[in-house]
Design goal:
This protein has eleven helices and eight strands. The chain is α/β, with parallel strands linked by helices and about 270 residues long. It is globular. The protein starts with a strand and ends in a 5-residue tail after the last helix.
């Protein structure tokens, strides 16, 4: 583990190599400890613990807003002494990666977005979008119970129990191993509540910046990801002038857990 001081003096931690050309990985959640990314089947990977998560220090609530955490990524780049960085963002971490790429495009060598949150670019995902994916899982042994709970959520009856019951929909495979991994995720709930606070996203500016973003970009999604259904994922990819769009078959929101070899093959160095 390494540490560095960010722009406001907050000490942040990272895990992995600090040498030349690491792949800097930003966790989702939002504000989940980066430890869940430790199993990514990728070489030369460096995980950043966002402020207030993992081994990084807690910080004032207002600094957890995602646009303000862009400066943490920039502080890491400076700490590593790199002119340009390869950046991977998963889920809500994709929002942070997008904001960094649009604020500091000159410092991005490659951008990898894995099941990124569509909020970063103002794409709305409807219940009907999710139903298409959910109903495609009808042969799964857990489907009958889980879909009943999802219908409760879609009807506006959201409860912690309901979200727990629909957990299988987030994965391409659901077994004891995956269930245990889900339970181990550590989330900073107070920080998560601030991540998308008012003012965090200037959608018009983000979309305009992506129109001219020229760094090699990969957008990888799982075929059965309930968080980013394929129709909306294609819409997301179309915002880039030349993004490589990859659909990993039979994979969910954490595609490396469903097929690590297919995931590693897709997230290869872009020429």
């Amino acid at each position: 583990m390494g540490t560095f001081s960010s722009y406001d003096g907050t000490k942040l931690a990272y895990h992995g190599p600090s040498g030349a050309d690491p792949l800097i990985c930003l966790p989702g959640g939002p504000m989940t400890a980066s430890s869940y990314l430790a199993v990514l089947p990728l070489e030369n990977m460096l995980r950043l613990d966002l402020r207030g998560t993992g081994e990084s220090e807690q910080a004032p609530l207002e600094t957890y807003r995602v646009d303000r955490q862009v400066e943490d990524v920039e502080a890491l780049r400076r700490h590593l002494g790199l002119d340009r960085i390869r950046l991977l963002g998963h889920s809500a971490g994709g929002t942070l990666a997008i904001l960094y790429a649009t604020r500091y495009p000159q410092h991005v060598e490659e951008l990898v977005l894995v099941a990124p949150s569509a909020r970063a670019v103002g794409i709305d995902i409807t219940n009907d979008d999710r139903r298409v994916i959910a109903h495609s899982r009808g042969e799964e042994p857990w489907y009958a119970e889980a879909i009943t709970w999802f219908e409760e959520i879609w009807a506006g009856n959201e409860t912690p129990e309901a979200w727990e019951k629909v957990a299988p929909f987030w994965h391409g495979r659901w077994d004891d191993e995956i269930s245990k991994l889900d339970d181990e995720h550590a989330n900073n709930e107070a920080a998560a509540a601030q991540y998308y606070a008012e003012g965090a996203l200037d959608l018009e500016a983000i979309r305009a910046a992506l129109e001219t973003f020229d760094a090699p970009t990969l957008l990888l999604v799982g075929e059965v990801d309930i968080a980013l259904p394929l129709n909306r994922a294609r819409e997301y990819a179309d915002l880039f002038p030349h993004a490589r769009f990859v659909i990993q078959e039979a994979a969910g929101h954490a595609p490396w857990l469903d097929d690590s070899e297919a995931f590693a093959a897709a997230v290869q160095r872009i020429p």
